[in-house]
Design goal:
- The structure is a single chain.
- The chain has about 140 residues and is an alpha+beta fold.
- The protein contains 3 helices and 5 strands.
- The protein has a 5-stranded antiparallel beta sheet, covered by helices on one side.
- The radius of gyration is 17 Å and the shape is globular.
- The structure holds guanosine-5'-monophosphate and zinc ion.
Length: about 140
């Protein structure tokens, strides 16, 4: 498979070796490395090597490989850092907090009481609205 590459993309530069990283894993489709601005010790990123901005645009096989790598890497990072759990986070679009426009999965090691975010104030579901929304969404999903 030929890889898409964007010369202005920082993660494509890391894939190409133009910017160094603390590498954790590499194969033909995927690269994993430590985040340079970690939320916690061991915070890592798993990326498809081929450039795509958002998850929906990424190569399917590479996304599946990213998931497999994250599945293995998360527990290894937890063990090596003495963390107690981990979040898998994936941001799409600036409204969702995406700053780097190349698909990436965050592995964020967690400890009880570490004060990191990823909690929200739960709203109340309206079951009539939710039922209509679920029907509309379900009719458009065809992976
Ligand atoms: P986003 O907010 O786009 O989901 O997260 C982008 C992440 O990429 C941030 O956590 C940031 O610290 C990390 N990052 C940005 N530039 C670099 C870099 O050059 N090297 C590494 N290792 N991480 C980077
Ligand atoms: Zn890129």
């Amino acid at each position: 498979m030929s890889l898409n590459s964007d010369p202005d993309c920082i993660f494509c530069k890391i894939v190409a070796g133009g910017i160094p990283c603390h590498q954790l894993y590499e194969d033909d489709l995927v690269l994993a490395f430590l985040d340079v601005g970690p939320l916690s010790e061991g915070h890592a990123l798993v990326i498809p090597k081929s450039h795509a901005v958002e998850l929906a645009d990424a190569d399917q096989q590479a996304v599946e490989r990213c998931a497999a790598v994250a599945k293995q890497l998360g527990p290894v990072i937890v063990e090596q850092t003495g963390a107690a759990g981990w979040n898998l986070l994936q941001n799409n679009g600036s409204a969702a907090g995406q700053e780097v426009g190349h698909v990436h999965f965050h592995i964020i090691p967690r400890r009880a009481g570490d004060g990191l975010g990823y909690r929200w104030n739960a709203g109340a579901i309206d079951h009539d609205d939710a039922g209509q929304l679920a029907t509309k969404i379900a009719s458009s999903v065809n992976p």
